[in-house]
């Protein structure tokens, strides 16, 4: 089975090689407008030469932008924190929730899927997500990260942040985004844990990453960078080159749509396609180690500061706002979940507190740098109650065996956070507002901000993500089922995937 998988991946890599070998000029990546800015300076110098040779010479001699060392250091730390979220954070959180006979299988699925996506990101993912193409997908100018080292200049290429004239090395931005792609794919495995083939997980992730994660990331996050908006005359043209959802004006600070809703829909479709676990609804599927789950949840919370605050791309006030919101919204969600459990069951549980923390982290992700602390607290409280309903009432309505409640937490939390971002981004409710004009970086005035309009834009982004991920996931699972087969045998499932799929066990009696 794995031979078929590796053969498919080898073919994909071979297909990318000729494209990489082309000696075409690389265009600027999504947020890296340094090359475009440099071209604009050269063009301006040439035009000025006709009337003022001295001024032209001075303009042409202007030094290239130098990345800010503090921002660069913060982004490398943030990248490490997102890796901490995944391996070991998410792996232990999921691992503790399954039965002991499947502990290693979950650790393997998370670790290997993350590693594979990082490799695919370097091969072609970054290029397709963060270079200019069309409203849905980028191009191949950064295949194998070609061009991040500028041979002509003898230095690394720059990536723009959200402030004019402020840059970080593009290679750091690419690495940061690689960790986002990796953890998104790993979130999915919780939906069909304990009964899927290891090879099927990897082949599905490879297909879904290519046709769902990359396009959604491009549609939400690709734009030409602030320095491209040099005048009102080019503003409309620059916006038309951005991803579709960015063009709509949707706000997604760190991945409510790209990461959580995208992965949650894929997980829910997988739960239906793979089928229910043997004995589901008839016997208890008790987590084998809530201690490990708590450790995993704690690591997720710590790592999420890099995930959210790092998405500011600078060590500035918006990073500080995202950092603070990640703290307070998560704490509010823990309290809300515990209150809800106490009202429903008479007791608040450790599993509930850990789940509440993840619910708050998910919901604040799109809002982290887009709402004030008051809005963050409210989003956290609402998410705690909403996700509790997601893993109880909604789960029964859907009728799927979503093993580790991927949709109930990440789907519901992501939708709640994305929609409420449009509400609490309002400067009238303590939010920082949104940029109205990237030429001047002017914000929407309080009297001009329309909550209804922004919530509608947010809803369009949510709906497109749900439909896109759902369709891609359905097709991907069908392909995997035909090539490898999705589910292990009944005998293997009863014995446990640790032994049957990996030949080892987490615990020795």
UniProtKB/TrEMBL annotation:
<feature type="transmembrane region" description="Helical">
    <location>
        <begin position="406"/>
        <end position="424"/>
    </location>
</feature>
<keyword id="KW-0813">Transport</keyword>
<dbReference type="InterPro" id="IPR001905">
    <property type="entry name" value="Ammonium_transpt"/>
</dbReference>
<dbReference type="GO" id="GO:0008519">
    <property type="term" value="F:ammonium channel activity"/>
</dbReference>
<feature type="signal peptide">
    <location>
        <begin position="1"/>
        <end position="21"/>
    </location>
</feature>
<feature type="transmembrane region" description="Helical">
    <location>
        <begin position="318"/>
        <end position="339"/>
    </location>
</feature>
<keyword id="KW-0732">Signal</keyword>
<dbReference type="InterPro" id="IPR024041">
    <property type="entry name" value="NH4_transpt_AmtB-like_dom"/>
</dbReference>
<feature type="transmembrane region" description="Helical">
    <location>
        <begin position="375"/>
        <end position="394"/>
    </location>
</feature>
<keyword id="KW-1133">Transmembrane helix</keyword>
<feature type="transmembrane region" description="Helical">
    <location>
        <begin position="244"/>
        <end position="273"/>
    </location>
</feature>
<feature type="transmembrane region" description="Helical">
    <location>
        <begin position="351"/>
        <end position="369"/>
    </location>
</feature>
<keyword id="KW-0812">Transmembrane</keyword>
<dbReference type="GO" id="GO:0005886">
    <property type="term" value="C:plasma membrane"/>
</dbReference>
<dbReference type="InterPro" id="IPR029020">
    <property type="entry name" value="Ammonium/urea_transptr"/>
</dbReference>
<keyword id="KW-0924">Ammonia transport</keyword>
<keyword id="KW-0472">Membrane</keyword>
<feature type="transmembrane region" description="Helical">
    <location>
        <begin position="285"/>
        <end position="306"/>
    </location>
</feature>
<dbReference type="InterPro" id="IPR018047">
    <property type="entry name" value="Ammonium_transpt_CS"/>
</dbReference>
<dbReference type="Pfam" id="PF00909">
    <property type="entry name" value="Ammonium_transp"/>
</dbReference>
<feature type="domain" description="Ammonium transporter AmtB-like">
    <location>
        <begin position="73"/>
        <end position="507"/>
    </location>
</feature>
<feature type="transmembrane region" description="Helical">
    <location>
        <begin position="73"/>
        <end position="94"/>
    </location>
</feature>
<protein>
    <recommendedName>
        <fullName>Ammonium transporter</fullName>
    </recommendedName>
</protein>
<feature type="transmembrane region" description="Helical">
    <location>
        <begin position="171"/>
        <end position="193"/>
    </location>
</feature>
<feature type="transmembrane region" description="Helical">
    <location>
        <begin position="106"/>
        <end position="124"/>
    </location>
</feature>
<feature type="transmembrane region" description="Helical">
    <location>
        <begin position="200"/>
        <end position="224"/>
    </location>
</feature>
<feature type="transmembrane region" description="Helical">
    <location>
        <begin position="462"/>
        <end position="480"/>
    </location>
</feature>
<comment type="similarity">
    <text>Belongs to the ammonia transporter channel (TC 1.A.11.2) family.</text>
</comment>
